[in-house]
Amino acid sequence: MNLDDRLRAAGSALREGSVTQVDAATGLRAIILCADPDPDAGDQAGPLDEPAGHPAPSLLPPAPPPLRRPQRLALAVNLLLVMALGTVLVVAVQRGQVTGPSATVPTARAATTIVPPRTVAQDEARTVPSVPEACVETTKLADEVISRLNRNIRDERLFLALRDYTIASQACRREASP
Amino acid sequence: MGQEAFDEFYLREYPRVVGLLQGLLRSRLVAEELAQETFLVAYRDWGRVGGLDNPRAWVRRVALNQRGSFLRAYLRQQARERDSAVQYQDDTIKLADDHAEVWEAIRTLPPSQAQVIALHYYEDYSIAQIAAALGRAPGTIKAQLHHGRRKLARLLGTGPDGRPA
Q1: Which residues have a Cβ under 8 Å from the Cβ of B128 and sit 6 or more positions away?
Q2: Given an 8 Å threshold on Cβ–Cβ distance, is B3 in contact with A24?
Q3: How many Å lie between the alpha carbon of B77 and the closest alpha carbon of chain A?
Q4: Is A34 in contact with B4 (Cβ distance < 8 A)?
Q5: How high is the ipTM of this complex?
Q6: pLDDT of amino acid A54
Q7: Contacts of B56 in chain A (CB under 8 A)
Q8: CA-to-CA distance for B145 and B162, rounded, in angstroms?
């Protein structure tokens, strides 16, 4: 057997060996798990025969994997941010009422306190708080961020939502400040 | 090019790429790891890779680059730790002794020659296909194939015509 034949035979033997001895199905499952932990990540995420509306591809385990340490830290930081936002909103609402034309009674007590007779229009004008548009936007973005974190969806959209949330919350603080 | 197309591509090509890398690296575990890395890159960018003229050549090129990076890192580590704990296990794809000896000889070639020999004899690639897959000039491939064959003839004790070298 000459060299060329020997090389071809060795190549052919390895090719056949690789096809029969390498388990590609396991590798494919691993690659999908590794590359796409987000079950909602669009049409590339799961098999095409996946039932519509079913969030997790069949190849994924039923329970989400436990959060890693940096993920837990990010979750804690984001929850703190949301709590801080809530505080800012409450303060903003209270200030809006305190600095109102004749409002001396907090909203929470307004329902149980006997107030001097006024027109309905006056009461409504006094009790409806004015929330800056940026704060409304902030709460929507916060909801989105929390939803994604709860579902453990950490992708580009989470990053964008967090970025928008940060910008909106800063604007909210500015607008809510006296 | 959707998920099904990728699945089909992976199931067909992954074992072949593992074999190619194992031929050049000896360790099947490392070959599988590098092949997996390669297909992960393809999966993440499948919209583009799947639309290429020749995705098969693309994964082979990436796989061979991965092998190069791995070997450089491995050699650096060995240089740092003289008695490196990293050893190739006996985890190869099982081959007859004669074929194993051929691949052992191919692995001793300079990397560029080994790649060309592997693509030519393992993948049955022509010189033009190897040139396209590796992004080198056909003349370079021809020369590397020639030099590689000559060294292998010496290493394996076989002349080009089958007579002892």
Answers
A1: B138
A2: no
A3: 27
A4: no
A5: 0.81
A6: 33
A7: none
A8: 18
